[in-house]
Amino acid sequence: MALLESLVNGLVQGSIFAVFAASFTIIFGVMDIPNMAHAALFAGGAYVFYQLVNVTGVPWPIGILGTIVVIALLGAIIEIVLLAPLYDRKESEYIFGVILVTIGLASILERLYAQIWGHSPKYISVAGLQDRSVSALSVTTNYLEILVFVFAVANFAFLYWLINYTEIGLGLRAIVQNRDLAVVRGIDVNRVFLVAFALASAMAAVAGVLNAAMYSLEPTMGFSLLIKAFIIVILGGIGRVMGAMIAGYTLGIYEAFAVLYFSSYYIYASEFAVLIAFFLLKAIILSEGEESLMTGIRNRFRGFIQRGVGG
């Protein structure tokens, strides 16, 4: 039953990957620049939840809601105070400015967490979730693992509704596809930027809570996940939330099964090898004038089949 256990572990780990990567790709797709402080917001969500639930003693559902509100407000303040003044700069200054500001912000937030909560790992205790389990098909999982998966699914259901059936979702999709055209059509780009940053920050906080409840929390806990988020977002498509979800779960399941046979070193190396192969394939196919990577792959596969039949 090791395979079934690995599948369950992969779904749980993939839930965290998918939620964090989806939050990352929202900002990446809208701003055209990765938010290098996103891992610090991820850790911030975990620490706020820890403070509310394990220190203050509020019930965990209220702790999650409180965490979402606090980190969403923090994200909105960051966007208004630090990033909005850069939007009118020329492209080179904008790119350099956003990267520099978010790297500096990440360093400041991580040091702040260390000053408040210390450098040593902290552990979140959620009574009634970690100590209760259910068994099926000879696989035992606790309520917390089930909750992680349910929260991730609920998160993507909410995002699907927001992106496809609301005005702000229309603005997000329009800016990701063509920012200049979105401006011409009267979409308030600055308002969409603000909402997108607050929303993505809140999602990063949720991912941080899920990760910390499963494992532990420390000031730099989000750095390694940020690297994985780059891989997931590129493979899933920048700005494509559902693509991030699929790629995130795929990566989580792959790691859960790969750890049975390989060391973590080879697993990480294989992930980057896939990313490099993806870039090379994309460069080769798109350089020949194809409209998209999938169109190019489909045309080449069709040509290969035709040559085989004709030969």
In short:
The chain is mostly helical and 311 residues long. It has helices at residues 2-31, 38-56, 60-83, 91-117, 143-165, 167-177, 179-184, 189-214, 223-236, 241-258, 264-286, 293-310; strands at 133-136, 139-142.
Provide a descriptive summary of the structure in words.
The chain is mainly α and 311 residues long. It is built from twelve helices and two strands, in the order H-H-H-H-E-E-H-H-H-H-H-H-H-H. A two-stranded antiparallel sheet has the order 1-2. A hairpin with a 2-residue loop joins strand 1 (133-136) and strand 2. The radius of gyration is 21 Å and the shape is globular.
Main sheet: which strands, in order across? 1-2
Helical content (DSSP H or I, runs of 4+): over 70%
Write the H/E string, N to C: HHHHEEHHHHHHHH
Enumerate the spans where pLDDT stays under 50 for 5 or more consecutive residues.
none
Keywords:
2 strands, two-stranded antiparallel sheet, mainly alpha, 3% strand, 311 residues
Write the layout of secondary structure elements.
Elements: H1 2-31, H2 38-56, H3 60-83, H4 91-117, E1 133-136, E2 139-142, H5 143-165, H6 167-177, H7 179-184, H8 189-214, H9 223-236, H10 241-258, H11 264-286, H12 293-310
Antiparallel strand pairs: 1-2
Helix pairs in contact: 1-5, 1-8, 1-9, 1-10, 2-3, 2-4, 2-8, 3-8, 5-6, 5-8, 6-8, 9-10
